[in-house]
Amino acid sequence: MFSRRQFVTTSSCAIALSWRPPMLEAAEPKPFDPTPQIVKIKKQEDIGQILVVPRSFYLYFVVKPRRAIRYGVGVGKAGLEFTGSAIIERKREWPSWRPTPEMIKRDPRAYSKFVDNEYIQPGGPENPLGARALYLYQNGVDTYFRIHGTNRPETIGSAVSNGCIRLSNAHVADLYERVPVGTTVTVI
């Protein structure tokens, strides 16, 4: 038979062993949501600036102090991603496109129709740049990195591109209307 002391001690141990402090519980990650939405941002950033956080697959367009429109994006594969700051110096609707020589060299089979010629793919729904493109420059020189739409919306939320930042066509069209030439883009 248990004494009162044994009962209290055993009960206390059982409760203590089953309790976990909140900091040890696995935090449920929020599901990725590419839908544009106004969110709070931690730091005071310049209004009109674009911030890209590749590890979370989000682009933030700062609209007022500590507030931004957040868009889901796809980013460059490891080793191909853009980093640092650039300026949007050109904007195009339904842009034409040709892969860079480096892209063709890395994957000649994927870009076979561009090998040994000057073919440029016209803008349209099958074009990898999608509905809109924002051209990133550093010190007045084209970086060949873009913020653009995509003909593969299933890639939003992943690192699969040759370095560009891609949004769904509807989302890049929205961003395109909001940002002027001269906008600063910083990839963190």
Overview of the structural elements:
The chain is of the alpha/beta class. It has a single domain, classed as L,D-transpeptidase catalytic domain-like (Beta Barrel). The protein contains three helices and eleven strands. It has a nine-stranded mixed beta sheet, with helices on one face. Strands 5-9 form a two-stranded parallel sheet. Strand 7 and strand 8 (141-148) form a beta hairpin. Mean pLDDT is 89; it is low at 13-24. Belongs to the YkuD family. The active site is at 148 (proton donor/acceptor), 164 (nucleophile). Keywords: Cell shape, Cell wall biogenesis/degradation, Glycosyltransferase, Hydrolase, Peptidoglycan synthesis, Transferase. One of its GO terms (molecular function) is peptidoglycan L,D-transpeptidase activity. This is L,D-transpeptidase family protein.
